[in-house]
Structures are given as structure tokens and as C-alpha cells.
Amino acid sequence: MPNTPFDSREFRNALGNFATGVTIVTAKGKNGELVGVTASSFNSVSLDPPLILWSLDRSSTSLQAIETASHFCVHILGDAQADECMAFAKSGVDKFSELSCDEGLGGAPLIDGCLGRFECRNVVHHDGGDHVIIIGEVERFVTREGNPLVFFRGKLSAIAPEMDGA
Ligand SMILES: Cc1cc2nc3c(=O)[nH]c(=O)nc-3n(C[C@H](O)[C@H](O)[C@H](O)COP(=O)(O)O)c2cc1C
What we know:
The protein has 166 residues and is mainly beta. The chain has one domain (22-154): Electron Transport, Fmn-binding Protein, Chain A (Pnp Oxidase, Chain A). The protein is 12% helix and 42% strand. It has 3 helices and 12 strands; from the N terminus they run αβββββαβαββββββ. It has helices at 8-15, 63-68, 82-87, and strands at 20-21, 23-28, 34-39, 43-46, 51-57, 71-76, 102-103, 109-110, 116-128, 131-143, 149-152, 155-158. A 7-stranded antiparallel β-sheet has the order 3-2-6-9-10-5-4. Flavin mononucleotide is lined by residues 22, 37-41, 54-57, 60-62, 85, 89-92, 151.
């Protein structure tokens, strides 16, 4: 039985009101396996030192590889990358068989066509209940122009036009 005093689906739906971007986090595990996970939990933490965070479900089949990798790479997805988003949200499949990726720091696969890419040293892991909170120190990054893929109320969408006066 869950330990929460409320319905977990309602809790999840309430959290879904917070619109986020979407990332794919990739890494090369200690045994050379390439893993990648779609993650909307990405956020910035610190400018100096340059730190970011994201959280990974303990049930993820990529957990062990990501926990032991020296580095991981966070890719911020653009609005033309919904297919990549869904492909990397599948569990336990080889997500790289049809992709040709360059190798980043620590061997993390680098996916093309993203709005931003942050190559991070895998520095700290914190307990986050059924997730692990992973903090990375950014060692290298690239960005490019474009509009982001957005995740809101359980659905992917594109960003709204700019608000008047913003
Ligand atoms: C838009 C979106 C955002 C997601 N965000 C996260 C996240 O932040 N953390 C997480 O652990 N899983 C997240 N998931 C689910 C994982 O991508 C999914 O469980 C994935 O299949 C795990 O793969 P693995 O078992 O091969 O590691 C998200 C899925 C989608 C579609």
C-alpha cells in the first residue's frame, strides 16, 4: 500500500499542471552499455559551480548504468523531437540501434538536433523517495536556436506564442 494520504493519480495530475520542457539523458555504463531516458525533471541548480539536476525512477532499467557512469549528457528537446521523446520513454529496449551518435564525455551518446546539450560530470546522488535525485556539474555545453518541446498535463505540445508585454 502506498504511504501517501491521497490518491497518487490525483497527485500526479496536480503535478502535471507544472509545464516543463523535455530532455533525454544519456550515459555509457561501466560495462559499455549505452542508456538513455526521457526526463522532464531536469532543472538548473547553480551557476557557480555550474550544476543541474534531474531525478530518475528507481525502477528504471537504466538506473545502474547511470549511477555508475562518470558522466551523463542532458539533451533539451526541440518541438520537432516528439518521436525521440517517446522512443526514449520506452523501457528496457536498445534505444541506440538506429541512431548514429558521437561520443561525449565519459562515452555518453550525443543526440543531434537538440536545443541544448549539457555534458555533465556525475557528481552527487540524493535519496528522493522512489526516485534518485542526480546532480551533475556541467563541463561542456552547446545551444542552438529553436522552439522547445513542452510537457503539460501528461501531453506533449509546442510553446505558446509570446505573451503581449513580456
Ligand atoms: C515526457 C516524459 C517525461 C518523463 N520524465 C521522467 C523523469 O523525469 N524521470 C524518470 O525517471 N522518468 C521519466 N519519464 C519516464 C521514463 O522516460 C521511462 O520510464 C523510461 O522508459 C525509462 O527507461 P528505462 O527503463 O529503459 O531506463 C518520462 C517520460 C515522459 C514521456
